[in-house]
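Example for tutorial group B:
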């Protein structure tokens, strides 16, 4: 039987190396330090999101870490931290700066006024006159919100990082930020006229709303009452909708058999319309003279249930009125083509002119 000593030793060595590597990795991820160092405290008016384990840096190089944060004097924050050196300049300035866009912070130690030979030792508390809180991301980015709304996600991330660096004094200048911003806002500038027109139109709408404020308020009030009434009568409304659905179904079943006849009537109506259009002059003339003719016909029936006519003249004409075959030479009677009677009454005058 083979000895298990060799594999067991290898397994133990592997386990030790794995645990050690895991510990080192966890230590690095947790921003852990080797411990020790010199402890200091600093008082800030605002230490939002500063947490134990955050870096302490000098010129961007990590020299320590934050060990704790607590409230002092009811409205101030005291941050305890340690550094890997025994002393700090007496005029040192400590600023809370943004580590990334997710809001993580770190303490930045910077050279302050005064002689660097003057130092402070461990346990010293640095006052408000030498500390600076982090910039307010909410207020900062709210000012750039109209710009961010017009940019892509990558452009927003790039511009945000540059803004933070500039305002923290880490790199770049205001002129570079403005130049980058100008390059990112070309699209907005191209749409300036459209945006201006939109704002003008919006101003007109708001002005009209302001001028009719009472009516608009009344409209909203009435709408609220209407909606409330519908809500209170929801059962009745639901029943009415159901009945309307049934009515629609019944109407469809009634119209279905008559659909061919209706289609034929519509087609005939189209032909009638075309005929009316083609003979509109004649129809117009008929409608114009019809009242006059009806008035004259009405006069004939004004005395009773019969028509009464006044005879203005009587002519007898055969053929074209020129035939000599219809004359009566032997009997002293008028020719067929002869006017038998003509009245001289005023009502018989044409155009009210005497004959």
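The residue assignment follows.
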């Amino acid at each position: 039987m083979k000895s298990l000593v060799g594999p067991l030793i290898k397994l133990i060595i592997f386990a030790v190396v794995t645990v050690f590597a895991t510990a080192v990795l966890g230590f690095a991820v947790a921003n852990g330090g080797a411990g020790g160092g010199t402890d200091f405290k600093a008082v800030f008016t605002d230490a939002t999101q500063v947490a134990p384990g955050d870096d302490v840096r000098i010129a961007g190089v990590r020299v320590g870490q934050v060990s704790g944060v607590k409230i002092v004097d009811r409205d101030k924050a005291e941050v305890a931290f340690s550094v890997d050196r025994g002393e700090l300049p007496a005029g040192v300035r400590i600023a809370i700066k943004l580590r990334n866009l997710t809001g993580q912070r770190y303490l930045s130690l910077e050279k302050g006024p005064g002689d660097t030979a003057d130092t402070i030792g461990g346990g010293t508390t640095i006052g408000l006159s030498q500390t600076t809180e982090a910039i307010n991301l909410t207020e900062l980015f709210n000012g750039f919100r109209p710009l961010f709304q017009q940019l892509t996600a990558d452009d927003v991330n790039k511009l945000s990082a540059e803004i933070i660096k500039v305002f923290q004094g880490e790199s770049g200048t205001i002129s570079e930020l403005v130049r980058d911003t100008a390059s990112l806002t070309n699209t907005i500038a191209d749409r300036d006229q459209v945006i201006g027109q939109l704002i003008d139109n919006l101003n007109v709408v708001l002005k009209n709303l302001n001028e009719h404020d009472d009516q608009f308020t009344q409209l909203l009030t009435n709408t609220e009452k209407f909606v409330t009434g519908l809500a209170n009568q929801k059962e009745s409304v639901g029943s009415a909708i159901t009945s309307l659905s049934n009515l629609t179904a019944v109407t469809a079943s009634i119209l279905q058999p008559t659909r061919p006849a209706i289609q034929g009537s519509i087609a005939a109506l189209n032909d009638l319309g075309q005929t009316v259009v083609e003979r509109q002059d004649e129809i117009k003339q008929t409608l114009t003279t019809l009242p006059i003719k009806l008035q004259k016909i009405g006069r004939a029936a004004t005395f009773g249930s019969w028509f009464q006519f006044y005879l203005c003249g009587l002519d007898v004409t055969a053929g074209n009125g020129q035939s000599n075959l219809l004359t009566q030479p032997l009997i002293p009677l008028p020719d067929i083509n002869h006017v038998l009677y003509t009245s001289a009454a005023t009502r018989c005058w044409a155009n009210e002119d005497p004959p």
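The chain has ten helices and twelve strands. Compare this with the pattern of hydrophobic and polar residues in the output above.
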